[in-house]
Amino acid sequence: MNRRNCWICKTCRDESKRSPSNLTLEEMIQWAQSFEKLMATKYGPVVYSAYLKMEHSDENIKFWMACENYKKIASRRSRISKAKKLYKIYIQPQSPREINIDSSTRENICRNIQEPTQTCFEEAQRIVYMHMERDSYPRFLKSEMYQKLLKTIQSSSNS
């Protein structure tokens, strides 16, 4: 999403004062019901990702989404290439977007990276999902960003 069309980040929000035209109050209400429902909606992951970016922890959702895409790779060659890239960015100690996982999960991935399967990041993805659900998600629901967006959508749906 380029900055000109971005409706989430503060700079752009101040310029446009708009939310996405297709975001509904029903969808936003689902976000508050559970983290799973937030992640299953159209705009939930996008808005949540923007929140995590403001919180300086967007590596979690970026990794989770990258794993969702990784699981769909059919070609062995592409899977090996993508697996090494994911390892280098998110798993390798001191990597630019290192995720918070335990050492045994990290070691298992390291062992399996030469012949990666579609499920080789599954445990790390589960851990990251749990971190987001337990730590960031409750803060997201209380955040100024979420509350303001909710009020905007409520007032536009009442018009």
UniProtKB/TrEMBL annotation:
Q: Which domain of life is it from?
A: Eukaryota
Q: Matching Pfam families, A to Z? A: RGS (PF00615)
**What SMART domains does this protein's entry cite?**
RGS
Q: Does the keyword tRNA-binding apply?
A: no
Q: Among the record's GO biological process terms, what is one?
A: negative regulation of signal transduction
Under PROSITE patterns, the record lists: RGS
Print the keywords alphabetically.
Signal transduction inhibitor
Q: Which residues form the RGS domain?
A: 34-150
* Protein name in the entry: Regulator of G-protein signaling 13
The UniProt gene name for this protein comes to RGS13
